[in-house]
Amino acid sequence: MANHRPVRCAVIGVHNIASQHIPVLHALPEAEVVALCDVDPAPLAAASRTYGVAQVFSSVDDLLAWGEFDAAYVLVSVLAVAEVAERCMRAGFAAFIEKPPGLYTADTERLARAVRETGAIAAVGLNRRFYSSTLAGRAALLDTGDVLSVTVHADEDAGSQWHNPKFPPEVAARWIYANSIHALDLLRFFGGEVANVTPLRRRRALPNPDSFSALLEFESGAVGRAVADHFAPRGAGHRYEARTATAVLRSESGFDRVILERRGQAPVAFELTGLDRRLKPGFPGESQAFLRAVRRGEPAAFPSVTLDDAVGTMRMLDAITGAEAWAPQQRRLV
């Protein structure tokens, strides 16, 4: 597409996370929200009024038939996201896909195959990679040498998901894919491709395994450690620590602030900057990278999460959790 005009974006799904994405798109000069789509008429009408988007559709079929847009933001439920994203890509549109790109690795693999077969541009919304604090901290850390170890905690109180009517049991059972993926993806963000995973799993309080620990070996030779306890209160929650031979980078305050410590030097803090300070952190950066790829007609570049990249993270989660043995796919692939 011509790179002198904004990317025309259609937002599919106006509930929940759309209220974070749409203000970001409104704030970016390279984006224009031209249509909203949702099967639920009341929230769709409310979103149309709130965001000043007059063009609305009650079905994906009608939106695709209209076709006056360049890219779709697929923000529907986790059980529908893969099907809707694939339909958009096979219809010739770029797709920004909110995490996870399907609840199962097979979903993500199918989407990656669609990209290869259609040449569509796609990115997955794993926004922790784009926190301005983390990006600045990672760059400073790499100035001290190669990453030698990465430790990520993805601890959550997942018990509430089993009793929340918003989430089907299928989603609650695979909560590590539905939400903890945000933190655990940072293992690959810092460590690179995974060569081997040695897992340890336990069931402590929930119907399925709810305690996951793993040692990872990266192709680079670095070592990773993953911890995801989903029972009891969340405690410190999601956090990471990455080390070189002479420095350590660790997150604080839910990734809003990271600290770099170097031997013999005072610690350096990196905090949120730019649009991250007034909008959902990470969302501006990931959308800017995706929109830049759409305008250039080329795949999104690292740290964007392409679908092949997302397959790598999903397979890593499979190895950590062993979920296919205790929560296998329940739905027929379309």
Structure description:
35% of the residues lie in helices and 24% in strands. By secondary structure, the chain is α/β, with parallel strands linked by helices. It has 2 domains: 151 residues, 3-Layer(aba) Sandwich (Rossmann fold), CATH 3.40.50.720; 140 residues, 2-Layer Sandwich (Dihydrodipicolinate Reductase, domain 2). An 8-stranded mixed sheet has the order 8-9-10-7-11-12-13-14, covered by helices on one side. The protein has a 6-stranded parallel sheet with strand order 3-2-1-4-5-6, with helices on both faces. Helix 4 runs parallel beside helix 5, helix 5 runs antiparallel to helix 10 and helix 8 packs across helix 10. The longest helix is centred in the middle third of the chain and has 17 residues. It is globular and about 60 Å long.
What value does the average pLDDT take? 96
Q: What's the overall geometry?
A: globular
The total count of helices amounts to 11
Class by alpha and beta content: alpha/beta
Q: Trace the largest sheet across and list its strands.
A: 8-9-10-7-11-12-13-14
Provide keyphrases for this structure.
single chain; 334 residues; alpha/beta; Rossmann fold; Dihydrodipicolinate Reductase, domain 2; eight-stranded mixed β-sheet; 11 helices
Annotate the secondary structure layout.
Elements: E1 7-12, H1 18-27, E2 31-37, H2 41-51, E3 56-57, H3 60-66, E4 71-74, H4 81-90, E5 94-98, H5 105-118, E6 122-125, H6 132-142, E7 149-154, H7 169-173, H8 175-191, E8 194-202, E9 211-218, E10 223-229, E11 238-243, E12 247-252, E13 257-262, E14 268-271, H9 283-296, H10 307-321, H11 323-326
Helix pairs in contact: 4-5, 5-10, 8-10
